[in-house]
């Protein structure tokens, strides 16, 4: 039996076939899952094109996680394709350019980063809660927020809030039998990463310091961890952050 045989999954954040979310959707289908994607606005058409590159074309439902109307309608839109959910992947993050100037950032830029990149985890979990089966799993993608990284600035603060949000979700959804965990991936050359000014700083140092090495073009290791957490193989794990970074997080100064 495949790892996700019969599972019904919602996967957000598929924009290109290099994204972690795309590889989660691909691997999930290969492991027997039924997958529904989300997108919105001008990105909808792009996501629909990318969805055709999966082993089986996946339906795409409209969802802007900052739009209360979209969140309220999500369960109904999903009901057109699945009769429930066993797992949700949160792969959403955005910060305006001004948020990458820590001392100079305006509150409007910071608020946008926090809303899209942190609060949205709670919003998505609440919107899908009526459909999530007992034993279900919510998985999010983070970038280790224990440190003040170069160039990451308010996005780093947003990720710290994201990680804290996951712990509170684990507390509040645990009685429903729903697990909430994160995967802290090393730097991957995705569309989101390219929007961060100076992101190449991470690429230059990661390979040198990660004991297992690191390939910034390969999203599959992180995707595999997400698929494992979406499966039944971690039935008593919640509130956790799994590092998939070649071991970089465990090393001291190089």
Question: What is the domain tally?
Answer: 1
CATH superfamily placement: NAD(P)-binding Rossmann-like Domain
Structural classification: alpha/beta
Distance between the termini: 44 Å
Q: How would you write the strand order of the largest sheet?
A: 3-2-1-4-5-6-7
Poorly predicted residue ranges: none
How do the SSEs run, as a string of H and E? EHEHEHEHEHEHHHE
Share in helix: 25-40%
Number of strands: 7
β-strand amount: 15-25%
* CATH architecture label name: 3-Layer(aba) Sandwich
| Main pleated sheet | 7 strands, parallel
Description of the molecule:
The chain has 254 residues and is of the alpha/beta class. It has a single domain, classed as NAD(P)-binding Rossmann-like Domain (Rossmann fold, 3-Layer(aba) Sandwich). 39% of the residues lie in helices and 16% in strands. It is built from 8 helices and 7 strands. A 7-stranded parallel beta sheet has the order 3-2-1-4-5-6-7, sandwiched between helices. Helix 1 links the parallel strand 1 and strand 2. It is globular. The N and C termini lie far apart (44 Å). The mean pLDDT is 95.
């Amino acid at each position: 039996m495949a790892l996700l045989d019969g599972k019904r999954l919602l996967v957000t954040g598929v924009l290109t076939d290099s994204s972690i979310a795309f590889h989660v959707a691909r691997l999930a289908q290969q492991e027997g899952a039924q997958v529904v994607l989300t997108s919105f606005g001008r990105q909808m058409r792009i996501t629909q094109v990318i969805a055709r590159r999966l082993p089986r074309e996946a339906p795409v439902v409209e969802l802007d996680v900052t739009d209360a109307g979209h969140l309220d309608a999500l369960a109904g839109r999903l009901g057109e394709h699945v009769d429930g959910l066993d797992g949700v992947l949160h792969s959403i993050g955005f910060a305006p350019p001004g948020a990458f100037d820590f001392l100079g950032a305006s509150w409007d830029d910071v608020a946008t980063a926090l809303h899209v990149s942190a609060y949205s985890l709670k919003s998505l979990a609440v919107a899908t809660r009526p459909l999530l089966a007992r034993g279900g799993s919510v998985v999010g993608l983070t970038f280790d927020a224990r440190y003040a990284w170069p160039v990451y600035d308010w996005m780093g603060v947003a990720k710290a809030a994201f990680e804290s949000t996951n712990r509170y979700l684990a507390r509040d959804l645990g009685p429903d039998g729903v697990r909430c965990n994160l995967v802290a991936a090393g730097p991957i050359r995705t569309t989101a990463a390219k929007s961060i000014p100076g992101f190449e700083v991470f690429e230059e140092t990661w390979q040198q310091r990660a004991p297992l090495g690191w390939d910034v073009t390969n999203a599959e290791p992180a995707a595999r961890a997400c698929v494992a957490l979406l499966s039944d193989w971690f039935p008593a794990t919640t509130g956790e952050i799994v590092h998939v970074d070649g071991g970089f997080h465990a090393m001291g100064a190089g």
